[in-house]
Structure formats: structure tokens, C-alpha cells
Amino acid sequence: MLSWLKRDPRRRLQRDYERKLEQAMEAARNGDMRANAALTEQAEAIRGEIERHRARAKR
Predict the structure, then answer these.
(1) Which of 6, 21, 34, 37 has its CA 20 to 30 A from that of 44?
(2) 15-36 burial: b if 16+ Cβ within 10 Å, else e
(3) Helices (H), strands (E): how many in the chain?
(4) Which of 52, 42, 45, 51 is CA-nearest to residue 22?
(5) What is the C-alpha to C-alpha distance for residues 33 and 2, in angstroms, rounded to an integer?
(6) pTM summary value
(7) Is the pLDDT of residue 1 over 60?
């Protein structure tokens, strides 16, 4: 009934994904390649979750 009030989880995930990529870029600029790798890995995990949500939405 109130489904229109629910927030889209993909929107939040997309925002989190972009934020992690920005943090990874900043870490790379500062020369911290370990942090860059860790943040990029986290971003890729979020991207996988976004893809799973898209696949569910297509069903």
C-alpha cells in the first residue's frame, strides 16, 4: 500500500559505489596503494550487489 514511500536500494548502493571509487582515487593520489586496492575491492562488491538488484528487477 505504501510502497511508493520505500526508498530504492539501488540508488543508495549506486551512491555508496561512487563514494568508494572516489575514496580509492584519493588514496591512489596520496600513494597509498593498499588502501586503493581495498577500497576498489569494496566498490566492486557493491557493484555486484547493484547487478543482483538489476537482475531481480528484470524478472
Answers:
(1) 6
(2) ebbeebbebbeebeeeeeeeeb
(3) 2, 0
(4) 42
(5) 46
(6) 0.82
(7) no
The enclosing H or E element of 51 equals helix 33-58
The total number of residues shown for the chain amounts to: 59
Angle of CA points 42, 47, 52, to nearest 5°: 125
CB 46 within 8 A of CB 20: yes
C-alpha cell at 15: 551512491
What pLDDT, on a 0 to 100 scale, did the predictor assign at position 9? 86
Q: Is 1 exposed, middle or buried (0-12, 13-18, 19+ CB in 10 A)?
A: exposed
Amino acid at 35: A
Residue type (1 letter), 32: D
